[in-house]
Write a structure and sequence with these properties.
Elements lengths: L1 H6 L4 E2 L6 H5 L12 E4 L3 H14 L3 E4 L13 E4 L6 E4 L4 E5 L4 H8 L16 H6 L8 H4 L6 E7 L5 E4 L5 H7 L8 E8 L5 E10 L3 H11 L7 E9 L14 E9 L3 H12 L4 E4 L2 E4 L16 E7 L4 H11 L9 E6 L21 E7 L6 H11 L7 E2 L9 H4 L2 H8 L1 H14 L15
Helix pairs in contact: 8-10
């Protein structure tokens, strides 16, 4: 490692050295990272040298920014962390942002909001911009109106397996541009992206909370309702346990609740009119839907502490009453194996439309995605994952293989057949061809791996 130590500005850490464990930390306690070495990149030059060194030494490369993306164990590999790469600039005149690989969504929104602009950001403020966007990027506020975050990328800077720093646009290396946006981390280390932002300053949103025992009533109302609302309205439904902490509102404390999340880009009066059928579905414990500044986007889902418990994802081509009944049996009162959390996101709208410049996002035309999760499991996360897989097996009649790649569980994302199914055969074959051209040795293989053809 002496060559690396001499040539990069950021820290170089090996097992047992001070800072190694902290640099490798993720939000998933079941899948610790154990790379041969870690390089804390401070800029593009560090990344380029790190990738070149890894290729020379025959070390596969894993990449971690905000600790949310799955990178397997990184055993025997080189981990490049990008959290120090915080370059960020906003151009109000062109409504565009350039963000380095370590930038988080709350950092972007803090800069764009004073200019009356907003990106197609994620549900949690602490999510990394680059990893989210490379997986498509599904926004709970702007998604149904503007599509996926990947649809609005203008330029990508990426270090490929040959150690070259490339500036990729739809005109310059179009096949790589297509593959990067939706293909996750298969094609190199993205050091910076440039993307469009939109004139949004405020929104109508928040949550409507019901007792967990009323899941059947609320889910029935919600599934009928989502088919009727305009694209400016985004929504999801979650069953979640609330801790018995003083910080939790008294009406919710220590109970299982049904949480209907609302994000609306329209007037307050229109939002109230649209949401009225949901408020009438069952007695409301707490209603926080109201006018908010765009900086409060995290209050839609309230994922203040993003967790990576064991989970499974199922994309649905429909949500009929029979499928809703399966979900009630899975997560409702009296469930034998109630998961810690169940979430259903309604997609559709602009998320179904191909952007002006096509990309590899796989989930267009998928109307619903379901995530079931459970915490705990101790040393048996694999067994717990299998239990969840069996639990959601009842949704098979309405399931589709294509899915939201960012939502795949750790086990799914490291299963090549699951990854192939999530993309579909045609898209996967095209991605594999791009992979063969830019990474024939499969250097980048820890995250949602696509093997070169």
């Amino acid at each position: 490692m002496r060559l690396v130590l001499r040539d990069v500005a950021g820290p170089v850490l090996t097992p047992g050295s001070d800072g190694y464990a902290a640099e490798c930390a993720t939000t998933d306690p079941h899948r610790p990272l154990r790379p041969t070495a870690v390089i804390g990149a401070t800029g593009e030059d560090d990344v380029r040298k790190a990738v070149s060194f890894a290729a020379w030494q025959g070390l596969p490369v894993a990449v971690k920014s905000a600790a949310h993306q799955v990178v397997g164990s990184a055993d025997g590999g080189l981990l490049i962390t990008t959290g120090r790469m915080k370059s960020l600039s906003v151009e109000a005149a062109t409504r565009s942002v350039r963000a380095g690989a370590g930038v988080l969504w709350d950092e972007v929104v803090a800069r764009t909001a004073p200019l009356g602009l907003a990106p197609v950001m994620g549900s949690a403020p602490g999510i990394g911009v680059v990893g989210y966007t490379l997986g498509g990027g599904l926004s709970p506020l702007l998604g149904r109106t503007h599509g996926y975050a990947a649809d609005h990328v203008l330029r990508v800077k990426v270090v490929t397996a040959d150690g070259e720093l490339r500036t990729v646009t739809p005109e310059r290396e179009p096949s790589l541009f297509w593959a990067l946006l939706g293909g996750k981390g298969n094609f190199g280390v993205v050091t910076e992206i440039e993307f469009r932002v939109f004139p949004v300053t405020r929104f109508q949103g928040g949550g409507i909370f019901f007792a967990g025992e009323r899941l059947a009533d609320v889910l029935e109302a919600w599934r009928r309702w989502v088919a009727t609302v305009p694209e400016e309205m985004s929504s999801s439904l979650a069953v979640r346990p609330m801790p018995g902490l003083p910080s939790v509102p008294r009406a919710l404390r220590g109970s299982s609740v049904v949480h209907v999340r609302i994000g609306h880009l329209g007037a307050a009066e229109e939002c109230d009119r649209l949401v009225a059928p949901l408020r009438a579905a069952a007695p409301v414990l707490l209603d926080t839907v109201g006018t908010r500044p765009v900086t409060a986007f995290g209050e839609i889902h309230q994922d203040a502490d993003p967790l990576h418990p064991v989970h499974r994802t199922v994309a649905l081509r429909a949500l009929p009453r029979e499928a809703a009944d399966v979900l009630v049996r899975l997560a409702g009162p009296g469930s034998v194996r109630r998961p810690a959390r169940l979430e259903i996101r309604a997609l559709g709208g602009a998320l179904d439309r191909e952007p002006e410049v096509p990309n590899a996002v796989a989930s267009r035309g998928v109307p619903f995605v379901v995530v079931v999760s459970a915490t705990g499991g101790g040393e048996r996360p694999g067994a717990l994952g299998e239990e969840l897989a069996q639990a959601v097996g009842g949704l098979a009649p309405w399931a589709t293989d294509r899915s939201v790649v960012n939502f795949l569980s750790a086990q799914e994302a490291t299963d090549e057949e699951a990854v192939r199914a999530a993309y579909g055969p045609v898209r996967y074959s095209r991605l594999a061809e791009v992979k063969r051209h830019y990474d024939p040795a499969n250097l980048f293989r820890f995250n949602h791996n696509i093997r070169p053809v």
